[in-house]
């Protein structure tokens, strides 16, 4: 498949994000309204969670405009770290949302009796179905575009679906057992822990990108083997990589016959580079050529 242009990338990202904005506004309004009317802490908290999705949607719409820009003189390695920053922001926001929901659920435990209505059940059920569909569509597009931030936002949608599920169960239980209205607070606590877990996973992935975490050891080993199969490469060392979303840089030292000319060594390095870029979808490969001396022969 040919690489996506910046315009196509931004158009697809904006389309799915605006769809999320519409769904979040609609669901948050319903959940907050009926949560307040029915004194349901879990449904109200779930509505606040949906509302927080709007902030991450806005961060995506604004951030993608900058991180998809090509490299320039001031930023020779591109702007891809901005995507990791947006992803990190989404994770931190989720932490804050989870903390708020947990605090409210604990402080109001059993204080207000739930006023049950079937409309609350319908709202929670619609939220579960809608947000799971939105997660599937957003995550698939995130994989296609190799966008870490888009996949993080997809998980934000799924946490909304996950948080609505215990709310739905709690509402149905309180219908059967009206005196168990304290379960509404239990549902809010469960929701908060689900969001905490999702936030941790998102922040961890973004942090890895910000500190230039490299490719997995097994991938580096495959890269070494591929490079060693190129005729003329005698030995490889000092292989390093750094990954940030859909951008991966690699540098390595290749050892060649010490009698090889500068031109031949330069041509060989380009051959190795082109093979690695194509096979492993690398953004760039920097290769340093060294002579394969008698000492290296003995070491090998």
Give a written overview of the molecule.
- With about 300 residues, the protein is mainly alpha-helical.
- It folds into two domains: about 5-210, Alpha-lytic protease prodomain-like (Up-down Bundle), CATH 1.20.1510; about 215-300, Cation efflux protein, cytoplasmic domain (Alpha-Beta Plaits, 2-Layer Sandwich).
- Helices cover about 70% and strands about 10% of the residues.
- The protein has nine helices and three strands; from the N terminus they run H-H-H-H-H-H-H-E-E-H-E-H.
- Strands 1-2-3 form a three-stranded mixed sheet.
- Helix 2 (about 40-65) runs antiparallel to helix 3 and helix 2 (about 40-65) runs antiparallel to helix 5 (about 150-175).
Helix content: 55-70%
Say which CATH homologous superfamily of the largest domain is assigned: Cation efflux protein transmembrane domain
Count of helical stretches: 9
Strand content: 5-15%
Distance between the termini: 40 Å
Strand order of the largest sheet: 1-2-3
Radius of gyration over alpha carbons? Answer: 26 Å
Overall mean pLDDT stands at: 79
Number of domains: 2
Structure in a nutshell:
The chain is built from 9 helices and 3 strands, in the order H-H-H-H-H-H-H-E-E-H-E-H.
């Amino acid at each position: 498949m040919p690489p996506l242009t910046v315009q196509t990338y931004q158009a697809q990202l904006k389309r799915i994000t605006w769809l999320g904005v519409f769904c979040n506004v609609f669901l948050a309004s319903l959940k907050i309204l009926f949560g307040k009317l029915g004194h349901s802490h879990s449904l109200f908290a779930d509505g606040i969670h949906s509302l927080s999705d709007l902030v991450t949607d806005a961060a995506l719409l604004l951030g993608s405009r900058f991180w998809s820009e090509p490299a320039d003189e001031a930023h020779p390695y591109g702007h891809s770290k901005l995507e990791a920053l947006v992803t990190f922001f989404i994770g931190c926001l989720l932490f804050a949302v989870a903390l708020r929901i947990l605090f409210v659920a604990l402080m109001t435990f059993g204080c207000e009796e739930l006023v049950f209505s079937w409309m609350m059940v319908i709202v929670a059920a619609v939220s579960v179905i809608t947000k799971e569909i939105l997660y599937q569509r957003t995550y698939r597009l995130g994989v296609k575009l190799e966008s870490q931030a888009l996949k993080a936002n997809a998980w934000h949608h799924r946490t909304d679906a996950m948080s609505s599920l215990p709310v739905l169960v709690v509402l149905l239980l309180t219908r059967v057992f009206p005196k168990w209205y304290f379960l509404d607070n239990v549902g809010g606590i469960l929701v908060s822990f689900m969001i905490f877990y999702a936030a941790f996973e998102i922040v961890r992935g973004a942090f890895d990108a910000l500190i230039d975490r490299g490719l997995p050891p097994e991938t580096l080993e495959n890269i070494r083997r591929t490079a060693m199969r190129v005729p003329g490469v005698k030995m490889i060392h000092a292989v390093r990589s750094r990954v940030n979303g859909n951008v991966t840089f690699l540098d390595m030292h290749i050892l060649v016959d010490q009698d090889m000319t500068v031109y031949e060594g330069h041509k060989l390095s380009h051959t190795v580079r082109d093979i690695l870029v194509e096979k492993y979808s690398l953004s760039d490969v920097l290769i340093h050529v060294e002579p394969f001396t008698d000492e290296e022969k003995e070491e090998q």
